[in-house]
Amino acid sequence: MTLTRKDFPQGFIFGTATSSYQIEGAASEDGRGPSIWDTFCREPGRIHDGTSGDVACDHYHLWPEDLDLLRELGVDAYRFSLAWPRIQPTGSGAVNEKGLDFYERLVDGLLERGIQPYATLYHWDLPQALQDIGGWTNREVAHRFAEYAEVVTRRLGNRVRSIATLNEPWCSSLLSYDIGEHAPGLRDRRLALAAAHHLMLGHGEAMQAMRALNTGADLGVVLNLTPAYPASDRPEDLAAARFADGYANRWFLDPVFRGEYPQDMWEAFGADVPEVQAGDLETIREPLDFLGVNYYTRSLVSAEGTQKPAQAQYTHMDWEVYPQGLSDLLVRLNREYPAVPIYITENGAAYPDERGSGETVNDPDRLAYYQAHLAAVADATRQGVDVRGYFAWSMLDNFEWAYGYSRRFGLFYVDYQTQERTWKTSGRWYQGLLNRAPVAAD
Ligand code: PNW
């Protein structure tokens, strides 16, 4: 069964995605201030291979070549994020024009190549100066974020197709302040839930500020959603799966779409719940033009903990390959939440690619992952879910957060010594599907 564009609705957008800290490098150029990831990477033991995003893919300098590759790939759209500390080095006040200029060149470069820009305002690189006042646990940071959103939207809003406020607030709050795996690396559920609330509040305030500018860009938010399946129908497994779903998904979906926190989770979190002020939930519920969904895997949950089915396949992240989870998730969103256009803003897989001697890096597992997950998206659209587009994560191998450079997600292989980019077989396959350029691989 070969997938083609005809398996997707008319006008369906195919793209690929990256984020600022993961690819740009140039960490102290043109007035960029330090971010929490610069700090975190310098703390011993935080990053598995001891690296940082100081240089990364050097995209800050190589962006014209990278945009040429995107053109050759044939994507309709490119999703990137802006580094807040390039634009406001301390997270508030005067704008660093050189930082904004970089993104203006990038957006214009995309448009010149016929590629639609999809911007994300916050993909985790918080200005360190804002962490110094408590980061997202401080309500003030939500207001600072709305101001930053307004600055960017004034400059670029008339040229980008779409602006997402936050990428994956679950990661910026629970993974960062409760699980402690991402910057700032804390383990405190009360702080994590305060951070989550202020992230969502910042999202809502930013939506309102950007709406008022009326630029024509679609406005929304990107959530990473991990469907939780019970390991059996034992009541204790069902309860554990419901908690996992609340922790990963409903804690963010319910405030955004219903203006309320899920009652069961509010009770389960007990004394750790955030302070919610009058009007906060109305702000958070500001209507969206789209929901971005990042999907990588599911969780299989029992009362004893998460399970790993033995017969399943796993990526280099040790995440189960479970395409059915994506169609199930999309159908569920459509059934349980108000209808809103959905983009798959990230989906992809890490595998330990090797450069080899050929002119293409052979990555059959990644190619199979993309085929299966794109088929799941097509299936969901046939079941009536309004999915408007799909972005492969990622265009380039890049700095994979706590895993440093040890995990490769790219459609293009990056040699970090030379900064050479090499096509992978999955990239050629995607190019063939998009079919704006000659088909080169099957
Ligand atoms: C997402 N988890 O991160 C991010 O948006 C990307 O920047 C990242 O490169 C990509 O997925 C691959 O990891 C996640 O632990 C990181 O569940 C961790 C988790 C989920 C998403």
TrEMBL record:
TM region positions: none
GO MF term (any one): beta-glucosidase activity
Matches recorded under Gene3D superfamilies: Glycosidases
Active-site residue numbers: 346
Family membership: Belongs to the glycosyl hydrolase 1 family.
Originating species: Deinococcus hohokamensis
Catalytic activity annotation: Hydrolysis of terminal, non-reducing beta-D-glucosyl residues with release of beta-D-glucose
Assigned EC number: 3.2.1.21
UniProt KW Cell division keyword: no
Protein name as catalogued: Beta-glucosidase
The keyword Hydrolase is annotated on this UniProt entry: yes
Keywords for the protein's UniProt record, in alphabetical order: Carbohydrate metabolism, Cellulose degradation, Glycosidase, Hydrolase, Polysaccharide degradation
